[in-house]
Amino acid sequence: MLHGLRLPFLIVALALACAATATLVGCASSTTVTTTAVAAAGPAIQKARPQAINPIAGMQPTTATTPNDPVGDPTAHAMALSEVRTLLREELIAVKADNSTYVDPLQYVSVWERTDQGVDAQMPVGAPVLAPCPVKVLAVIPNWYAGQPLAYFELLDGPDAGKVQYVAEEITDIAPPGTILARGEVIARYAPAGTGIEYGWSTLNGVTLARATTGYEEGQATPAGRYIRAWLNALGANAGPG
Fold first, then answer.
1. Are residues 196 and 129 in contact, defined by beta-carbon separation less than 8 angstroms?
2. Which of 10, 20, 48, 128 would be 186's cystine partner, CB 3.0–4.6 Å?
3. Domain ranges in the chain?
4. pLDDT tens across 129-163, in order?
């Protein structure tokens, strides 16, 4: 009796198990199909591709380039401090002409001589050559003529502010380059021996105005020389016509 009932029970159980298996397989298949369909319906992932950007007219390329040669002189070195100081001493001062008056720089002349590049004269030994106004001594040329020096200096005020004058030859005790002297202070003194003094107009680098403008031959009376003589006479120097 029991054996008769067991067979139908086993058949029913087997049928239920197959139905459950079929359901699971069907769900899995449905899930797989649904996922695949969603993936197919979504946006496609694009692969990266190189793109060329066309420059706008007038734009410069930004790609850095390496020059073949270095910029500047690779062997250059810093200027010596002593040379820098020398250049600074020779620098002009920016000044404007005004109505300040001058004093006669050659108040102690004993003999007026010829007009050439400037005005020649003689003075007692030790007599001073005075600053006609505040001046800056720009430089001294040690061996300008016959082993004698030339000092040139900038006028810092008055109608001729910014112009440069010189005194040369038989002078000593010269104020150092870079010195700024007040009106009436001593630029140099008359030396014990030499060829007399010469006073005149200079260029900015110490070349006499006579040589720079008209040239000069020894003993020649130049326009620059006549100009300085007239300038001195206007200050009461009594230098005569020369």
1. no
2. 128
3. 111-205+213-231
4. 999 999 999 999 999 999 999 999 999 999 999 99
Tokens of 175: 């104020």
**Residue 222 and residue 239: Cα distance in Å, rounded?**
16
pLDDT 10s digits, 41-66:
455 566 666 655 666 666 665 555 55
- Helix ranges, the chain (H): 2-41, 81-89, 209-213, 223-234
Residues 198, 167 contacting (CB under 8 angstroms): yes
pTM over 0.85: no
* The pLDDT of residue 220: 87
Q: How many whole angstroms from its chain centre is CA 153? A: 25
Query: What is the dotted CATH code of the domain comprising 111-205+213-231?
Result: 2.70.70.10
Query: Is the separation of the CB atoms in 169 and 146 below 8 Å?
Result: yes
CA distances from 7 to 11, 19, 20, 231 (A): 6, 19, 20, 152
3-state secondary structure of 18: helix
Burial class (CB in 10 A: 0-12, 13-18, 19+), 130: buried
> Which two structure tokens, joined as six digits, stand for 195?
């060829």
* CB of 198 closer than 8 Å to CB of 118: yes
**Which amino acid is residue 214, in one-letter code?**
T
Beta bridge mates, 188: 129
Half-sphere exposure at residue 51, Cβ-oriented, CA atoms within 13 angstroms? 5
pLDDT band at 34 (very low <50, low <70, confident <90, very high): very low
